[in-house]
Amino acid sequence: MSAATKAIEAGHIWTFPGGIHPPERKDRSNSTPIEVLPLAKQFIVPIKQHSGPVGDLLVAVGDNVKAGQPLTQVGINNALPVHAPTSGTVSAIGPGRIAHPSGLTDTVITIDADGNDEFYSFAPLADYTSLSRAELLDRIRQAGVAGLGGAGFPTAQKLALQRPLDYLIINGVECEPYISADDRLMREHAQTIIDGTEILLHIAGCEKALIAIEANKPEAIAAFEALLPNYPQLALRVVPTKYPSGGEKQLIQLLTGRQVPSRGLPIDVGLVMQNVGTAYAVAQAVLNGKPLIERVVTVTGDNIAKPGNYWVRIGTTVAELLNQCGFEPVADSKQEQRVIMGGPMMGFTLPDLDVPVVKITNCILVPSNQELAPAAEEMNCIRCGACADVCPAQLLPQQMQWLAKAKDYDGLEQQNLFDCIECGACAYVCPSEIPLVHYYRKAKAEIRNIAREKAKAEVARERFEARQERLEREKQERLERHRKAAEARKKAQAEAVAQGGDNPQDAVQAAIARAKARKAAQAAAAAKQNQEGDDE
Amino acid sequence: MTFKIAASPHTHQRRTTQQVMRWVYLALIPGVLVQTYFFGFGVYIQLALALFTAWVAEGLCMRMRGRPIGHAWQDHTAIVTAVLLAVSIPALAPWWIIVMGTAFAIVVVKHVYGGVGQNLFNPAMAGYVLLLVSFPVQMTSWPIPAELAQIQVSITDTLNLIFTGFTSAGYNLEQLRMGIDGMTMATPLDSLRNDLNHQLTLTEALNKPIFGDIAGIGWAWVNFAFLAGGLVLIKQKIISWHIPGGMLVGLLVPAAIYWLFNPDQAITPMLHLLSGATMLGAFFIATDPVTAATSNKGRWVFGLLVGFIVFAIRTWGGYPDAVAFAVLLANMCVPVIDRYTQPIAYGHGGRS
Ligand code: SF4
Ligand code: SF4
């Protein structure tokens, strides 16, 4: 065992550069158990809630569905299905607004609940080790499990990579302020999370899992400490409270001292990371056959009367959720009210509330302007370097900011813009209140666009050239065919003549002669008639 | 119903440029007080002149560049520039010295380069160097520390001196700077380098009333006061320790080595540290974020460089103090320093 591995085994916690300590404000939502909210009357289920291809529709308008029934299927492109959150009738399928920073629309399935909440029948599994790896992966995929912590990467796909693994990391850090969904889940369902972790280990063929929890969650830590002695292949790691220690790359650095190579994946350094919520969902899917139709959402902020954590069915609209939790926007400050999906550091504001909660929604934050003051006017960068001091990716945010404003995209790539994890630490400390992350996102989108346009132009050029080539080739082939056909004809003719048959050439001559003779005869007859006429 | 759209992050630590700058000039106060104690009310008058000039110059520049005037006032950087320049020049220098220096610092060094954040050179120090090169006599005529002066200068006389060049009794600055022995009194560093240049030994050179016990009467206390203010800034995380630390090490180490080998020809390390503008330079001038290096490693290198240049100029150069030149020279090296000290981004082969 190398020294580095020994250190990992011994529970050494490395550090990562930078980071910040924003006010946590988790105590507002983490002191009460997760509550189940009354079912909504209507649910809006986007068919794409994960990264990757979408499944083909399995239902049509008017169909009756039961809770947990798949609405889309895995199909040939290995998509991730979505499921009906409750029993009811499909009342519409079509474009609808989804929770997205830029207010995008996508195909959504609207389900009118019948109120009975009848469940589709699931097949529980007594002994998951009896199934093969592929069967287990299929079970997870069929249940629609995607990473609940971040971008919603399909869990089965992440596990399907057949590469040597040193550790599976279960991320229960939840470093973003305000959010306590994972915290409550860990306190109340540590056993299920452990079951899920074991299944994940089994599937990944990995020996050891590290469960990481931030030091500010003593109850969650205690819950695991009580159970873990029975599970030698699981180890608990408590990481210091600092934002963004729950970022995938930062957590890997904290627990193993390794760095995921730029543009690489954790598996490149022998690691796979899953969120605690995902581990819970995996256990539900594999052991109970239950698809992912609900998740824990933190609803918090000064303007929420009943802050806390709630089991929310996927597809519940934010408006419905907020109603249940006592949100009354003050009428005259409506324009100023922000409703944030996600936390204060990386969440995005919603333009309106008719968008649904999806698999990756971990928090709805409705702050007052006192607790989270709206951004002040941007001032000039004073090159104070505060941003660089806190950047966990060791970038130079102020440099990137100049370059982004100057639209110097080559320069930005040289400054490793794409290694920016958009954690927002730089903008948080910037004394000039420059919305740095906003500039980076814009620049990234622009660079991606340019790359896409370039690729498109490249494809078009290739297509054009291929077409030219094909036409040319076809022309050549046609000419060749004609030439061959003519040759064959000539040859056949010559052979026929040689064998004493009629020379077709003679026949032509004869026909011409005949035609001439006829013309001559006609001319003679006409002349004769004219003559006769003249005679009269 | 529609809600407000904003870009993440939605929270901010609320330490604005203005607050940062306010800390900087608040931390300058002890030094200013001590300096006034030893060198008279002239310090306040210079401050007032500098602030007024900076205010007018900043406003005019903003107006001319078509920017909202408010922005310039808001960020308080002009105030810091003005204060730094005012405490750097001799307290009884004629009024047009500080006015010219401040105006040059704000208009040319800062705004011609594109305003705050864009300037390559530290405005206060560029202004200082311009003055020093153009008006060497006025810029090196420091008043005698109050304890040693034969004639105490009243407020009215201070005003008279600054605005007319003569006290009401008709003394001019040169006469006031006369010591008990009838010799014009130079600053400790100035006097020392002259004497060393004239082949005096260190012991002989230090045998002047101006040196007092530690490192020159008045000067040592002024330096201690700026050091105290600077430590507050570090404690408040307004500046990082890298630049001041680097500068002091960069000055002290070569100075100590040189002194060990030339014990009779060199300025003592103590004098290096506590005389002239050393502490002011280390904590307030070299730390100007706009014109210093950006990463911590870079800041450390930058500080070392400033310190070493100060040592070199004080030892071999033609000027008694060297902080301004050192800072400007190091400013020029910043792009190179930044280039070679850029931290390795995550995932690019660095070590944890
Ligand atoms: S924190 Fe803001 S003002 Fe300071 S260097 Fe970074 S971008 Fe510029
Ligand atoms: S948002 Fe990007 S640049 Fe800013 S601190 Fe985070 S990783 Fe660094």
From TrEMBL, chain A:
<comment type="similarity">
    <text>Belongs to the 4Fe4S bacterial-type ferredoxin family. RnfC subfamily.</text>
</comment>
<feature type="binding site">
    <location>
        <position position="391"/>
    </location>
    <ligand>
        <name>[4Fe-4S] cluster 2</name>
    </ligand>
</feature>
<dbReference type="InterPro" id="IPR019554">
    <property type="entry name" value="Soluble_ligand-bd"/>
</dbReference>
<keyword id="KW-0411">Iron-sulfur</keyword>
<feature type="binding site">
    <location>
        <position position="423"/>
    </location>
    <ligand>
        <name>[4Fe-4S] cluster 2</name>
    </ligand>
</feature>
<comment type="function">
    <text>Part of a membrane-bound complex that couples electron transfer with translocation of ions across the membrane.</text>
</comment>
<keyword id="KW-0249">Electron transport</keyword>
<dbReference type="InterPro" id="IPR011538">
    <property type="entry name" value="Nuo51_FMN-bd"/>
</dbReference>
<feature type="binding site">
    <location>
        <position position="420"/>
    </location>
    <ligand>
        <name>[4Fe-4S] cluster 2</name>
    </ligand>
</feature>
<feature type="binding site">
    <location>
        <position position="384"/>
    </location>
    <ligand>
        <name>[4Fe-4S] cluster 1</name>
    </ligand>
</feature>
<keyword id="KW-0677">Repeat</keyword>
<dbReference type="InterPro" id="IPR037225">
    <property type="entry name" value="Nuo51_FMN-bd_sf"/>
</dbReference>
<keyword id="KW-0472">Membrane</keyword>
<dbReference type="GO" id="GO:0051539">
    <property type="term" value="F:4 iron, 4 sulfur cluster binding"/>
</dbReference>
<feature type="region of interest" description="Disordered">
    <location>
        <begin position="467"/>
        <end position="514"/>
    </location>
</feature>
<dbReference type="GO" id="GO:0005886">
    <property type="term" value="C:plasma membrane"/>
</dbReference>
<feature type="domain" description="4Fe-4S ferredoxin-type">
    <location>
        <begin position="411"/>
        <end position="440"/>
    </location>
</feature>
<dbReference type="Pfam" id="PF12838">
    <property type="entry name" value="Fer4_7"/>
</dbReference>
<keyword id="KW-1003">Cell membrane</keyword>
<comment type="subunit">
    <text>The complex is composed of six subunits: RnfA, RnfB, RnfC, RnfD, RnfE and RnfG.</text>
</comment>
<dbReference type="InterPro" id="IPR011053">
    <property type="entry name" value="Single_hybrid_motif"/>
</dbReference>
<dbReference type="Pfam" id="PF13375">
    <property type="entry name" value="RnfC_N"/>
</dbReference>
UniProtKB/TrEMBL annotation, chain B:
<dbReference type="GO" id="GO:0022900">
    <property type="term" value="P:electron transport chain"/>
</dbReference>
<keyword id="KW-0285">Flavoprotein</keyword>
<keyword id="KW-0997">Cell inner membrane</keyword>
<dbReference type="InterPro" id="IPR004338">
    <property type="entry name" value="NqrB/RnfD"/>
</dbReference>
<keyword id="KW-0249">Electron transport</keyword>
<keyword id="KW-1278">Translocase</keyword>
<dbReference type="GO" id="GO:0005886">
    <property type="term" value="C:plasma membrane"/>
</dbReference>
<keyword id="KW-0472">Membrane</keyword>
<protein>
    <recommendedName>
        <fullName>Ion-translocating oxidoreductase complex subunit D</fullName>
        <ecNumber>7.-.-.-</ecNumber>
    </recommendedName>
</protein>
<feature type="transmembrane region" description="Helical">
    <location>
        <begin position="298"/>
        <end position="316"/>
    </location>
</feature>
<keyword id="KW-0597">Phosphoprotein</keyword>
<dbReference type="InterPro" id="IPR011303">
    <property type="entry name" value="RnfD_bac"/>
</dbReference>
<feature type="transmembrane region" description="Helical">
    <location>
        <begin position="267"/>
        <end position="286"/>
    </location>
</feature>
<feature type="transmembrane region" description="Helical">
    <location>
        <begin position="120"/>
        <end position="139"/>
    </location>
</feature>
<comment type="function">
    <text>Part of a membrane-bound complex that couples electron transfer with translocation of ions across the membrane.</text>
</comment>
<comment type="subunit">
    <text>The complex is composed of six subunits: RnfA, RnfB, RnfC, RnfD, RnfE and RnfG.</text>
</comment>
<feature type="modified residue" description="FMN phosphoryl threonine">
    <location>
        <position position="187"/>
    </location>
</feature>
<dbReference type="Pfam" id="PF03116">
    <property type="entry name" value="NQR2_RnfD_RnfE"/>
</dbReference>
<keyword id="KW-0812">Transmembrane</keyword>
<keyword id="KW-0813">Transport</keyword>
<feature type="transmembrane region" description="Helical">
    <location>
        <begin position="20"/>
        <end position="38"/>
    </location>
</feature>
<feature type="transmembrane region" description="Helical">
    <location>
        <begin position="241"/>
        <end position="261"/>
    </location>
</feature>
